[in-house]
């Protein structure tokens, strides 16, 4: 998928949702979008885009699953900003883009393995409260700011709980070392 297309659509949407200029929505080496509200970093929101394309030739083999990976660096950043870091799950089918939000813990509950990144595999039936309309996306961002976001994923019991717990320990240790 041309993730760039989705990023191009998300930048103005996030700017509008958080009432900031587009130049205040920038990424860095570990995070796709950082919405800078004010000067204080504790007021900033961090969004990492995870996308998949149903229509891309030679793309997704299993169109009923959303899959991807989150780097260890991304998960460490998430640990540093626990109430302000979200994954945007985007799925494109031709011209239609569906968006949803997930916390790092929700995403990790779908962990299938990890080495230098955490792989996840999410059945499409598990995605809830997704949106395709701009107004709904903006509403979700406003809810997120109030701490009332309807989550796209419900954490699930995972047979990889030991792996998840080991990965969480690594992330916590690394986030303390990298501060």
How would you describe this protein?
The chain is an alpha+beta fold and 179 residues long. It has one domain (3-177). The chain is built from 5 helices and 8 strands; from the N terminus they run H-E-E-E-E-H-E-E-H-E-E-H-H. The chain has helices spanning 3-17, 72-80, 104-108, 134-145, 161-177, and strands at 25-26, 33-35, 45-53, 65-71, 85-93, 96-102, 111-114, 117-123. The strands form 2 sheets. A 5-stranded mixed beta sheet has the order 1-2-3-5-6. The chain has a 3-stranded antiparallel beta sheet with strand order 4-8-7. A hairpin with a 2-residue loop joins strand 7 and strand 8 (117-123). Helix 1 crosses helix 4 and helix 2 crosses helix 5. The longest helix has 17 residues, at 161-177. The mean pLDDT is 79.
Ends apart, CA distance between termini: 34 Å
Strand content: 25-35%
User: Can you write the helix and strand succession as a string?
Assistant: HEEEEHEEHEEHH
Structural class: alpha+beta
| Count of runs of 4 or more consecutive helical residues | 5
List the helices and strands and how they pair.
Blueprint: H1 3-17, E1 25-26, E2 33-35, E3 45-53, E4 65-71, H2 72-80, E5 85-93, E6 96-102, H3 104-108, E7 111-114, E8 117-123, H4 134-145, H5 161-177
Parallel strand pairs: 3-5
Antiparallel strand pairs: 1-2, 2-3, 4-8, 5-6, 7-8
Helix pairs in contact: 1-4, 2-5
């Amino acid at each position: 998928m041309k993730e760039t297309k989705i990023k191009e659509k998300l930048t103005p949407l996030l700017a509008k949702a958080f009432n900031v200029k587009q130049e205040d929505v920038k990424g860095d080496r570990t995070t796709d979008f950082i919405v800078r509200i004010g000067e204080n970093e504790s007021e900033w929101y961090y969004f990492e885009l995870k996308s998949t394309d149903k229509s891309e030739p030679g793309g997704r083999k299993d169109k009923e699953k959303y899959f991807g990976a989150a780097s260890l660096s991304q998960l460490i950043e998430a640990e540093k900003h626990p109430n302000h870091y979200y994954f945007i799950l985007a799925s494109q089918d031709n011209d239609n883009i569906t968006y949803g939000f997930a916390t790092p813990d929700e995403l990790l509950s779908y962990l299938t393995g990890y080495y230098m990144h955490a792989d996840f595999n999410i059945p499409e039936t598990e995605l809830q409260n997704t949106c395709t309309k701009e107004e709904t996306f903006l509403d979700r961002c406003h809810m997120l700011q109030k701490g009332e976001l309807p989550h796209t994923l419900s954490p699930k019991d995972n047979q990889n709980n030991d792996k998840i717990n080991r990965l969480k320990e690594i992330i916590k240790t690394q986030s303390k070392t990298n501060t």
